[in-house]
Amino acid sequence: xxxxxxxxxxxxxxxxxxxxxxxxxxxxxxxxxxxxxxxxxxxxxxxxxxxxxxxxxxxxxxxxxxxxxxxxxxxxxxxxxxxxxxxxxxxxxxxxxxxxxxxxxxxxxxxxxxxxxxxxxxxxxxxxxxxxxxxxxxxxxxxxxxxxxxxxxxxxxxxxxxxxxxxxxxxxxxxxxxxxxxxxxxxxxxxxxxxxxxxxxxxxxxxxxxxxxxxxxxxxxxxxxxxxxxxxxxxxxxxxxxxxxxxxxxxxxxxxxxxxxxxxxxxxxxxxxxxxxxxxxxxxxxxxxxxxxxxxxxxxxxxxxxxxxxxxxxxxxxxxxxxxxxxxxxxxxxxxxxxxxxxxxxxxxxxxxxxxxxxxxxxxxxxxxxxxxxxxxxxxxxx
Length: 383
Description:
This protein has helices at about 10-20, 30-35, 45-50, 65-70, 75-85, 85-95, 140-160, 165-170, 220-240, 280-285, 285-290, 300-305, 320-325, 330-335, 350, 370-375; strands spanning about 1-5, 25, 40, 60, 105, 125, 135-140, 170-175, 180-190, 195-205, 215-220, 245-255, 260-265, 310-315, 340-345, 355-365. The chain is of the alpha+beta class and about 375 residues long. A hairpin with a 2-residue loop joins strand 12 (about 245-255) and strand 13 (about 260-265). The chain is globular, with a radius of gyration of 20 Å. The N and C termini lie far apart (about 45 Å).
């Protein structure tokens, strides 16, 4: 059972829906897809009946949470969604695991009155309910604090126009300790007994300490061999506090000296927009199919023929002049930098603020292409 919604339905996903006839909830996105592809669209009541009868449910976007709250009788689903989605609540639930972690929950209207001198830098400012790194700031000094508040004030209306309230929220922000170490994103699900099954582990690399973009995520045999078991054990510990069952989740974390600390949990979905499709491009399976079919990956078999490779995905932000409609972009020149390009899904830069999503294969021993994807000034391709 799948709910497909804005902002994007990947070609890989559409091909899967056509091939498997997995039931899809009727909505504007499903109608758009069905106009050109033979997918199995169910009316709202029929779809809800099948989920309420025990069908596993997954979404591609958090824009659908309001429909779930109104139509799904299983209180466990709604409760688990609400629990994972609320960053402040998760901080409280897991407080005994992280007694050293400091955080404050501040309403949007009260942000301007926070005394910066009382805050311990560096820290992270982010929405208590959020999506796709929107409204996330790393703050090391007063100038950055003032800039973050100004940016929130300037862009809040734009964010609300792109994402629903259930996806982005409106009520408050979290101010929390800056986490050191390396950032990792994990796609996983909890099975019928509540045990975690890891479907992918991605290392998130940044250009610098202030970078909060999603330009470069890396996976491969070496990444999963090194950290897959640790994340599975950690998710099992987390689930002692949440008690999720038959439930998918995308988790963003930091790992330092072997200690995993959560940044946020994204419920009932995997990596956003189309990021989870990296598993298909690398290993040949769809994460959502493994969840729906209750399949656990046989990693050593999946690694065959992929040793010595690192696989990358990136959500590429549009240069400001392109997003504002004041320039064009040379996509061919940009993509020519990636010899192992597997796929590029182009977005409307003005509507989304992004160029698109990229997937590529690289040699583990050669990092030039990965560094370019992470660091390059993309305005060089504007004209």
